[in-house]
Amino acid sequence: MSTQKTIRTRRGLALVAGSAALALTLIGCSGGGEAEPAPERDLGTPVAGEIQEGALDGVTLTFAGSGGVFQDGQTEALWDPFAAASGATVNQDAFDAGKLKAMVDSGNVSWDIVNTTQFDTARGCGTLYEEYDYSQIDISKIPEGTITDKCMVPQILYGLVVVYNTDKFGDNPPTSAADFFDTEKFPGKRTVSQSTYVDPQTVEFALTAQGKDITSLETSDIEGAFDMYKDLGDDVIGWTTGAQAQQQLESGEAVMGLVWSGRGYGAAAAGAPVAPMWDEWMIMVDSNGIPKGVKDPQAAFAAVNYSIGAEQQAKMTELTSYGGVNVDAKPEVDDLLSEWITTERLDTGIAPNVDFWVENYDALSAAWAGWATGN
Amino acid sequence: MTDHTVTGGAAPAGAVAPGADAVGAKKRGPKNWRPLLLLIPAFVIVSMFFLAPLADVFIRSITDPVPGVQNYVWLFTTEANLNVVLRTFGTAILVTFVCLLLAYPYAYLMTIVSDRTRNLMQLFIMMPLWTSILVRTLAWMVLLQDTGPINGLLAAWFGIGPIPLIRTTFGVALGMTQVLLPFMVLPLYSSMSKIDKRLLPAASNLGANPVTAFFTVYLPLSKPGIFSGGVTVFILGLGFYIIPALLGSSKEIMISAMIQQQISVFLMWGQGTALGIFLLVCTILILVVVSRFNKGGSLFPGVDR
């Protein structure tokens, strides 16, 4: 009996010890060790879209994008060729700003390049995102004015565009932001973003319709912009995801929508009778951001430099409809796609007032939170 | 198995049995703590993956971005938050009642039909659980929209419409009810199947009309099922995100969307975690209140006190 007792006690102790060891191991894993510093390489003078053969052999990079057709197209046009040329391995993941903050706060950053918005990189520059060393990137072919903070290189140039049903308004299409709000001249439901994700351009669009100059905004303008949408009453419906916006246009439920240009193209490519209004459209730029604390910034810079080459950007546009950021990019597009290319129509686009929104983000986010929750 | 392992007492079974007996007999003695060691792996896992993150969430809510209760002040002083909180609870209560109304007769039928029919009925109720919630929600989206088949038929047959179905509380409640119905039917069936069928004829024999017999005999006996189904559906209903987003308008958005927005978009983790803690505390309070009403038994059938 006493032997049995001893065995039981030992078992008990072993169990405690085992559990403690398991706990420690798991906690240890989550902490993350200090990685060796990345080697300094001589990659020469950067030329957009070029990388020395095998220069990054053995390096693994992870790109976190926004998913869907867009990320698939980027993978095919940018990251797979980059991996083949440089010898690096490029993994794909889905971007989420909250996840990025968790990574940076815990000092365990597993992304190297992320697709985010110019507002995000501007707000998080130096805290969530690394500042670029522009001497390692060839930005000579990037359109002027699209680099809006030190932590970004533009990724795509697209837009928030009015897309209308041509069966309804083919003969007499809307030609101004104000027309979007004119339900007498253009009857029917229109869809706008009520996603939890904030697009300041949605606010700027309403202000454009009011005749406001986007380059000189006041915080008091914000509420007025949301009131414009609320005043549409039952005629305004919301979309919470890009896919939903496209679905509402395709089904004809919305006769007009303020949607991302790629989603309008998606609806048109699916056969919906829709067309874009280019008279007053809101320019949007997505950023290539490098997370703060990235393990090998030089490799990440090289990948971004490769991705903005003319050839790569042209292919990405062909695959995704989103406008490239290299002025030399000449995508071969069919008739349908050519109607949706933003980069050809920058003269009628309205550029966002990035500084204003970064500075007044709290006012915008409070108003947007109310708008997105029906208050 | 050899004789040696069985009689040797070193096998886990030998270690458990005496202790379990002791606990069962509610004896207090020096030997009783040993079986508790078996709980250590579970305790370690729960601490690491539930308690520690929960503590972290709570600490963030009172320290992010600076120590203090400003996040809770924000929560209670922002009208939009309170509206969404009320809406969330209202929607969950509505869905719970709708589920109960639909599930009660269904579960009752399951207790009186043949085995084959019961299996079929069970299959019907389980099928939604096996389909992706996103696919189901998209199907509702297509069906319910103004240009969808339902409104199309209404227009073709009766010349009315379009009736707003999508982007209404109705649409959200419909989608949520479909998803949550099994969680109401199964506990109801489990508690109803234990009720002696002869009690109702006995009640009528004693002079009760069917309605009285139902309300005084059958309903009280099925109470454990109602409470456990109701609590499960209600608590699951509080956390819905994708269905209100796709079948509702901004006026049907629930608290989970606000938490997501604060965490992932605004990066205001203090405010997001305060919302989460508030939801958790409310849920626990409701559980406590409901369990007070359900004096007869546990909240979950099969777990008898």
From TrEMBL, chain A:
Annotated keywords: Periplasm, Signal, Transport
Pfam (any one): SBP_bac_8
Superkingdom per UniProt: Bacteria
Signal sequence interval, chain numbering: 1-35
Places the protein is found: Periplasm
Protein name as it appears in the record: Extracellular solute-binding protein
Species: Leucobacter rhizosphaerae
TrEMBL record, chain B:
Membrane topology: Multi-pass membrane protein
InterPro entries named in the record: MetI-like (IPR000515), MetI-like_sf (IPR035906)
Superkingdom, natural source: Bacteria
The keyword Ribosomal protein belongs to this UniProt entry's keyword annotation: no
Localization (cell): Cell membrane
PROSITE patterns per UniProt: ABC_TM1
Domain ABC transmembrane type-1: residue ranges: 85-290
CDD domains: TM_PBP2
Alphabetical UniProt keywords: Cell membrane, Membrane, Transmembrane, Transmembrane helix, Transport
Membrane-crossing residue ranges in chain numbering: 36-55, 84-108, 120-143, 163-187, 199-219, 225-247, 267-290
Any one Pfam family match given in the protein's UniProt record, by short name: BPD_transp_1
Family statement drawn from the similarity comment of this UniProt entry: Belongs to the binding-protein-dependent transport system permease family. CysTW subfamily.
PANTHER family: ABC TRANSPORTER PERMEASE PROTEIN, INNER MEMBRANE ABC TRANSPORTER PERMEASE PROTEIN YDCU-RELATED-RELATED
Protein name: ABC transporter permease
